[in-house]
Specification:
The structure is a homodimer of 407-residue chains.
Chain A: H1 9-17, E1 30-33, E2 40-47, E3 52-59, E4 62-65, E5 68-71, H2 75-90, E6 98-102, E7 107-111, E8 117-118, H3 119-124, H4 132-145, H5 154-163, H6 167-176, H7 195-203, H8 205-220, E9 224-226, E10 235-237, E11 242-244, E12 251-253, H9 256-272, H10 280-312, H11 323-348, H12 354-357, H13 362-382, H14 389-401
Antiparallel strand pairs in A: 1-2, 2-3, 3-7, 4-5, 6-7, 8-10, 9-12, 10-11
Amino acid sequence: MSSYHPFSLEDAIAYAKSIPDFFAADAVLTCEEIGDGNLNLVFRVADPQQNKSLIIKQALPYAKVVGESWPLSLDRARIEREALEIQHRLCPELVPAIYGGDNELAITVMEDLSGYTIMRQGLIDGHTYDHFAEHIGRFIATTLFYTSDLGMNQQDKKLQSARFINPDLCKITEDLIFEDPYRDADNNNFTEDIRPEAEKLWQDNELHLEVALLREKFLTRGEALLHGDLHTGSIFVTSDSTKVIDPEFAYYGPIGFDIGAVIANLLLNFAAQPGWSDNDAILQERRTWLLATIGGVWNHFEHNFRKLWDAHGVDIMSKTPGYQDLYMEKVLQDTIGFAGCKVIRRIVGLSHVADIDTIKNELHRHQAKVTALDIGKQLVKQGRSASSIAEVIEWAAAAAAKEGANV
Amino acid sequence: MSSYHPFSLEDAIAYAKSIPDFFAADAVLTCEEIGDGNLNLVFRVADPQQNKSLIIKQALPYAKVVGESWPLSLDRARIEREALEIQHRLCPELVPAIYGGDNELAITVMEDLSGYTIMRQGLIDGHTYDHFAEHIGRFIATTLFYTSDLGMNQQDKKLQSARFINPDLCKITEDLIFEDPYRDADNNNFTEDIRPEAEKLWQDNELHLEVALLREKFLTRGEALLHGDLHTGSIFVTSDSTKVIDPEFAYYGPIGFDIGAVIANLLLNFAAQPGWSDNDAILQERRTWLLATIGGVWNHFEHNFRKLWDAHGVDIMSKTPGYQDLYMEKVLQDTIGFAGCKVIRRIVGLSHVADIDTIKNELHRHQAKVTALDIGKQLVKQGRSASSIAEVIEWAAAAAAKEGANV
C-alpha cells in the first residue's frame, strides 16, 4: 500500500484523465467530492462541455460512524470493485458500469448516476417506485444464483469465495447487527424514550436464541456472493430504473441476508410513515404500497431464482423433486429472520436510518421506533417457522394497527 | 512448482538429513517406500543404529483409484501439513509430530508411527480398542471447536478458512459420496449381485432429497476445519494410543461430517462381521463392542464439545440458554446423515473398504453389503429427524437382525 494516499481533487482529475477512451485529451475537467467522508471519498469528475462524467470512489483506511472511528482494511475497495464487476456482468442494467480501478490506491472508477436518487431519500420524500420490486428481486436472484453452487462450477465457487474473505466488514455486521442490540453494549445508540424497549431486548431469551441461530448462519453459510449491505441507501433509483451500488460488505454468506436487508428497510420506512403525513388516506396508500412492494420483492426473487434453477442449474442432485421447495422455504425463513435483525439494530444499535431519525414530531418518531421494534421482534421470533411472505405483511399491518391515538 | 519431482530413495535420505537436530551427522540411514502409490509416496527413513526414524510423505500430481487416474493439486500437501500442525497443536498426543516440509516439493516430514496399526486392519484382524472412542471423540471435539466460530477469533477463522480452500479434494467427496451412488455413474463400482440394490438407490427419490440436503451442507457450511477423510484407514492405533493422520481433504465444512466418517466406518465393520467368524458368541461380542463404540464416539465428542463451549466459548451470543442444545441436535442429525452417505458409497461407489471386500465367503460378502446398504439408507432417511445416537444403534441392530439364515 506504499502508493496509497487520499486523493485531492487534482489527483482525481489526473486519474480520470488516465482512463482510456473516456474524456477527450483536451477536455477541461471539473471535480467535486460528494461523499459523506465516513468511509470513502467520492469524486465526481466531469467534462461540462461534453456533458460527460464519471465517479471515482476511494476507500479511507478507517470508518467513522456516529463519532466512532476504527481502522478498516483498504482491501475492501478491491472486494467492492470485483463484486461490482461480477454483478454488472450478471445484471448490466441494474449495476453501474466499472471503468477501472487500482488496488493500492483503493479506488474504483465507475458510471456516474447523477440523474438518480438514493432510494431511501426518495421514499422519505414520498415517491413510489413501481418497478423496484421486479428490479431488485431479479438483481438478488440473478447475482446470488450464479455465484452459488446451484449456478456456477462448484470448484470455481470455492476459489471465488477465497477472493471475498472480508473479515473487517463482516465484523461490523456481526457486532452491530447480531450482538450489540441484545446487550448493554457501548456501541448502542438510542434515545432515552426507547431505553425501556432496549432493556426488554436485552432480557428476551427467546429473541436471543433466534438471533444466535441467525448469527451462526451469517458466520458459517457460504451460499452465494452477497451484496452484504443491501439497504435502500445502497440503491439508486429513478421512476423506471434501479442501480445497486456499494457492495463493500460482499462476502460468501446466506442468501436470505440480502433479501432480508431490502425488506427490513422497506419495513423501517413503513414504520416511519405517520411521521410524514397527517393525511390518513396518503398514509394508508403509502403503507399499502410498501407492503405490496415487500411481497413483490420476495415474489420476484423467488420467481426468478426458481426459473434460473430450472433452466441453468449445474448440480444434478439439486434437481431432485422436492429439494427446490425445501430450499426456498429455508431462504424465506432466513430472509424473515435477517430482516427482523436489521430492523431492530436500526432502532437501538449504532447506525440508524433517516426514515425514522428525521421525523420532526417527537411522538411520531417515538411511535415509529416502537412499531419498528414490534415488527422486528416478530420477524426474528417467527421467522424460523414462517411459510409465506404474506405472514410478514400481516405482522407489519398488525403492528401498525396497534399504533396509539397519539399518531 | 519448478523444483517438484517425485523423490527417489536417495532424495528422501538427503532431505531427511537436512532436518535439524534429528539424525546424527554421521548416521548411516536406510530408506524404504511404504506408500500404496495411489496418491502419495511415503518414505520411511531410519537410523537403525540409533533406532530413530521419520516419515517423508510426498504428494503425487495425480490420484489413482481402482484404475482411474486424474490430476490432483500438489497444494494438498501444504493443506495436509498445515492441518496436521493445527491438529497437533490442539491434540499433541493424538496427532503425529511434524518435523518439517516443503510446499514446492509437496512433502511433509513427520513422526514415524511404525509401532502402530492402521485401525481398519486392526478391526479386520479382530482387535478391539477400548480407548478409541474417548480418543477420537476428544480429537474431533477439540480440533473442531477451536477452529470454529465458537472457539476462535471469528475474523482469524475467516482468514484461516481461505488457507484451506481445497477444490480438488472436495470435488472427490462431492462426486464419490454425494452424487455418483445415486445415479448410474461411470465411476460407480459394484459387483453384479448388488446391481438390484444399486438400481434401487438410483430410483429412491426420498433418499435423493436427503442426499441433496447433505450435499448442500458439505458445499456451503464452513463450520470448522474438518479432517475431511476421517475413516479407519486414516487412524493409527495401539491398544492404548490413537493417532490421526492424512488430513489432505481438510477444509472448512460441517462438523457432523468428521464424526459421521468415523461412525460410518465402524458401521461398515459391523456389517462385515459375519464374514469374519463362524462363532456366534464372538460375532455378537464384536458387534456389541462396535455399537458401544459408536455410542461412545458420539458421547465423548458431545461431552468434550459442550465442556469446551462452556469453558472457552468466545461468542457471547452462543451462551444464550437453549442454543447449545439446538446446535448439538443439528450436529447429531448431520452426523447421522453423513454417516449414511459414507456407508452407501463404500458399497456402490468407486472406493470400497477392505472390511467387506476381503470377506472370502461370497454369500457372507453379499450379505454384508446388503446389511450396510440397509443401515446406510436408514441413516440418510432418518437423520434429519433423529434425536439420539441410540437410534443409530437400534437401526444397525435391526438391520443385523434381518440378516438371512445364509449368514
